[in-house]
Every structure is written in C-alpha cells, then in structure tokens.
Amino acid sequence: MIGEREFRWLPHDGRRHAIPDRLDVGDEGQTLCGVRLTVPRRAGWKSSAGLWPTCADCDCAWREREGISRFPQSSSGSSRRRTAVIEEGA
C-alpha cells in the first residue's frame, strides 16, 4: 500500500532508532542497528539539547532498504554547508 513503511523511528538510549512498524507498546524487538528494546508507552522525543540525534547505523540500513541515497550525499556544496553549520553551532 502506498504511504506505508516497514519501519518507524523511536528515541532510545540517546538516539533515534528505526524499529519495525509492527511493534506495539510493550513488545520486545530490535532496531535496524541491532539494539534490543521493549517499546515504551511514551517516548521522550526531545533531549535537553533538542531532538535526539539519529542513529547513523539505523539511518544507513533504513535508506538501503527503502532505496534512498545515503545522507549526506557527497558533493562539494553540501560538504561546505555542513561544515559551516557545525562551526556556527560550536
């Protein structure tokens, strides 16, 4: 069905991880990067510094399964912009 995804994102252990969409509250499962977890009733979507950073391993595995290019895509323009943002936030 169009619009349905096999995975969804869940904050866990300091990062946003991809978990199978079929998991419900209280279910035990595994993230795409291999972390075992039990789906909580409520997830804290914000850390003290803002939104949880995305787990790079889950992101890479998710993109591969969805047929999406890896992020960030390598190009001179995006590399310069990312460096500038990091320096401004430091």
Automatic annotation (TrEMBL):
InterPro entries reported in the protein's UniProt record: Zf-HC3 (IPR031795)
Where on the tree of life does the source sit, at the highest rank? Bacteria
Q: Where is this region: Disordered?
A: 69-90
Q: Where is the composition biased (Low complexity)?
A: 69-78
Q: What is this protein called?
A: Zinc finger protein
This chain's source organism reads Actinosynnema mirum (strain ATCC 29888 / DSM 43827 / JCM 3225 / NBRC 14064 / NCIMB 13271 / NRRL B-12336 / IMRU 3971 / 101)
